[in-house]
Amino acid sequence: MDNTQQQFFESSETFKDLFDNAHDLIHIVRLDGTLLYVNSAWLRLLEYSQEEVKGMSIYDFVDESDGSRFIKYRNDIIGGGSDLKELVVRFVTRSGEKVDLEGFVSVKLHENKPQYTRGIFRDITSKLKNEAQLIKINEELKEREANLQRLLHYAPDAVIVVNAESIITYWNPKAEEIFGWTDKEVLDKALTDIIIPYQYRKRHDEGMKRYLATGEARVLNRTIEITALRKGGEEFFISLTISTTHQKGEIAFIAFIRDIDEQKRNALELEEKKKELEISNRELEQFAHVASHDMKEPIRKISMFSERLKSDSSSTLSAKAENYLDKILNAALRLTKMVDGVLSYSTLKAEEFLVEEVDLNEIIKSVLDDLELIIEEKQASIKYAELPVLKGSDFLLYQLFYNLINNALKFSKAGIPPVITVTTNDLSEHDFETFSLDKASQYVEITVEDNGIGFGQENAEMIFKTFFRLHSKDKYEGTGLGLALCKHIVDKHQGFITAVGKEGAGARFTIILPAENQPFINGG
Fold first, then answer.
1. Is the domain of 81 the same as that of 114?
2. Residue where a domain terminates, one of 226, 259, 292
3. Would you state the pLDDT for residue 334?
4. Is residue 147 part of a domain?
5. pLDDT at position 329, please?
6. What is the distance between the alpha carbons of residues 220 and 253, in angstroms, rounded to a whole number?
7. Whole-prediction pTM value?
8. Fewer CB near the last or first residue (10 Å), C or N of the chain?
9. pLDDT in tens, 108-153
10. Domain of 39?
11. What is the DSSP string of 147-194?
């Protein structure tokens, strides 16, 4: 045992028991760095025994990232060039785990000469980890707070926060836009004095008091429609949702507000228009009923006197005149049926139309008879053959094909005789998929194709809209209702109608109808 070691044990034997029971890590080290003594806490933390550390250097336990720094620090202490000061240094355990130690090294002097160094350290690994975790949490909280502030600041709705006394503590830019007040004008003022209409103020105050006293919430966390005040005193409709939050540990209320004044007033106006339309529809139904009923008498007279004329003058009328008289009688008969249809349509709801078997061949014949003059005038050719019989409304299906054929005649090319072809086809697999049809049911497909002026395909859906016109009223007469009525009739028969066209190259309308309709035609 050398003199340094002897001096150490003679001076420290009394305190050895105290050192071994200390919680801090204590070591005694020769000037060259060789360990003279380490206490039990030091051995436990670094996972060594007293025998294993004999002859080892203190630098063997320092992590390489801190090696140079620790050597300089210790040399400064030994050389007297540094006052006692704490440092944090990373040691490595026997199993390779890195631990952070905080403490200091001091030097033992004898006759003003350094003999050895003493180190006292404590394990702060968990402390640093906790601090790092706390810093991370604080940063995340700051980020969330910043994100929340940005979210509220740029929210598409007005966001207002009030405390338990209903004093405004937050007012975002959208609130400024909606209500007209800046945040500087409203912060720290009572909400009731700013945006709540007079008639709601007492109810608001009572609701706040009730919630704070009992926790009973009648409007929290649900959206209500109510009125509020703008800066100028204008009362307008808003959509309001209120939730609870906390500010500085105290309860607060956050309101999300959307200006719905325009849509609310539009809805109210629409409701009024709807009521007016219902009244107008009832009046029109009454008028149609009365007019149809009154029309039957002159039609009856036309038929009756035409019959008499035919009977009384059969020997004197020419064959041509006889033919004209037959046309008058047939037209009167069809007109009677049409009047009956209008009368029925004005009396019954759409879904109350009883369906019947309808021969589309007979429908086309009636349409051609009624359009005889314009067909002759335009030298039109209408081709059809073997159209199906299906169940539906005779009156409405007549209107469907009358409008389609009349439309084709109207929009024919100047100087070119119209050619209109009505055909029936089998449905393809594509048809069943496109229209989501039930493969267990039967359908018929009818096409009406012409060689007229056509239309751009981009307007294929718009042409079925009410009052939509592709062409000037000055050039082509009409109301813009014909194709819209066709769509309406097909819908009532639970079918589909589509159009394909090309400007200058004609148009093709395809109708798909159930062969066996429902017991009643469904109103569209």
1. yes
2. 259
3. 66
4. no
5. 75
6. 9
7. 0.42
8. N
9. 988 889 999 999 999 999 999 998 888 888 888 888 877 877 888 8
10. 3-123
11. HHHHHHHT-SSEEEEEETT-BEEEE-HHHHHHH---HHHHTTSBHHHH
